Amino acid sequence: MSLLATLRSLDDGFEAENTELIDYAVSWAQSIATDESASGTRLDFLAAAKLNYLLAARETGANGVTSFKAGDVSVKEDGSAAVKAAKEILDSALCDAGTLVNLKSGFAFIGV
């Protein structure tokens, strides 16, 4: 939560109101970690960056999927400044944690 607070202001009760998203972001970061015991600031910041991105997308009503049918997915970037900034932070955190995570394990949705 302290790392997330460096990216955005948090209201009282934030944790209680967003438990599912917090758990998802932490689980996501742990699921792509190359070592189950890996931890540290870079992996923690990656989870905070993912949560920040999810929150920004939710707040702006962003949904990058423009169409979805079997075998064909069309994705676009949201144009809002908040989502773009959150995406840049997430991309930077992924780059910084590159030695701690594996994103090249086959086809998978990294986030929806």
Tally of alpha and pi helices: 5
Strand order of the largest sheet: 1-2
What is the number of beta strands?
2
Helix content: 40-55%
End-to-end C-alpha gap: 22 Å
Structural class: mainly alpha
Order of helices and strands: HHHHEEH
Instruction: Output the radius of gyration.
Output: 14 Å
Shape: globular
Task: Name the beta content range.
Answer: 5-15%
The largest pleated sheet is described as: 2 strands, antiparallel
User: Uncertain spans, ≥5 residues at pLDDT below 50?
Assistant: none
Write down the overall mean pLDDT. 76
Overview of this protein structure:
51% of the residues lie in helices and 8% in strands. It is built from five helices and two strands; from the N terminus they run ααααββα. It has helices spanning 2-5, 14-17, 19-31, 41-60, 81-96, and strands at residues 65-69, 72-75. A two-stranded antiparallel sheet has the order 1-2. Strand 1 (65-69) and strand 2 form a beta hairpin. The longest helix has 20 residues, at 41-60. The radius of gyration is 14 Å and the shape is globular. It starts with a helix and ends in a 16-residue tail after the last helix.
